[in-house]
Amino acid sequence: MTLESHELWAQCLLNIERRVLARSFDTWFRTTRASRFDSESLVIEVQSAWSADFVESNYLTLIQKVVKEETELAPEIRFEVAANKVETPTQAETEAGPKAADPNQFGLSLPLQKGQAIDSEEEIIDPLSRQLYTSLNEKYTFETFVIGEGNSFAHAAAQAVAKSPGNTQFNPLVIYGGVGLGKTHLLQAIGQYALTHSTVERVAYVPSEKFISDFIHIAIKMRKQAEFQRMYRGADILLVDDIQFLPKTEATQNEFFHTFNALYQAGKQIVMTCDSPPGRLDGLEERLVSRFQWGLLTNIDPPDLETRIAILHQKAEISGIRLPEDVAVFLGNHVSSNIRELEGALIHMMAYCSVNNSELTVEVARKVIQERIPKQSTELAIEVIQRHIADHFDLTPEVLISKTRKKEVTMPRQIAMFLAKQLTGNSLKLIGLHFGNRDHSTVIHAIQTIDKRCKDDPTFAQLVDNLKNTIRQRHTPT
Ligand code: ADP
Ligand code: MG
To answer: Could you tell me the distance, in angstroms and rounded to a whole number, from the CA of residue 426 to the centre of ligand 1?
Structure first.
């Protein structure tokens, strides 16, 4: 490897680090190296075939984009498994300066101390199991969950399951819906409730990335498959978050399938969340999808204005602040993309008021909303979607929103409107405005057309889904 490829890649890594969750970065990127990086080819060295698979299926588009941004190059990207990393630092490491051999070389979220040997079973499995059962966030309870039209069914199902885990028809319970709509909140609320109100003792909350990294590290790398299984199959309630991140590899899905079966047969409760209906997930095995249908699939829709306002009041109350009604209405009206963003705007506003010693007024709310525009305004989000879709179909955003009725433009335009609704949750009217001042009925027509075609044509549904996922992956602030 040349020093230059090392440096180029290091620069890309800095960029990637800003865009993905810290945990994901640690797990999948921190230990990567580039053994070749020029206009033709970028060879990324990862720690195992598993990581290669995972990174390729989940982050390839992100990497391509970042490489383009940082270097103006568009090389073909390949992954290679790095040879023996632990014992001897590679030449690259020597070149790049001293770097101690890291026992936690996979960058996995294990409670390991530096220098601790990784092959001593007792030392690792125990803290691991403990960690598996104690990672609930106290903030996320049923009490703090505001019920609205979009989430009432999911909420009711979650409560039923929490009250008698494993003993309802809702096993497994799968909750799906867009980013920031409360899936993780509900999932964790089930765990907290069950721990305090039922006889269950072992609740495991597991983002699917953790399942994978535990599997790779414990079952594969450390060859402790039995321990891994004992750890996961010992749960009374298994809560798996974001199963869309389960990689396509047979081994991981196989392990997940068996974990699922073992728990199910023992009458244990399984709850999962997902960003789209599991049937539409690319790469999820048929047998897994059909298992999920044994129980209940339910979705969460974006909150309506009334619910958004109720959530704002509730979040303000938790912070010990009374939010004037007009301010709540203003914020609720101007931030509609997702609840996480709604919360962000409120926190931003409270911070602003405490720093400037001012009252919570509509004027201040307006200022704060404007300040947030560069980061994630609803306008920006629609533009981002337009740009992405235009790029994908080799059009310009101007043509995309123009009046032309050429077939090669109308279909992408309709997809863009459809995704604008799904991903930003903006009003039809606002979306219409952004698409060359079209009427909201045109937007409704577009959404219905795409919806219908997705139902009739799985390949098309897949295309739309892929576009949605890439936009989300690249542009959602983490
Ligand atoms: P998801 O997992 O669907 O991406 P989260 O569960 O992380 O979304 O929710 C994002 C934020 O919004 C969290 O802080 C959560 O507490 C809050 N939130 C979501 N839905 C509700 C709700 N119905 N009531 C109160 N807070 C909510
Ligand atoms: Mg979540």
So the answer is: 18
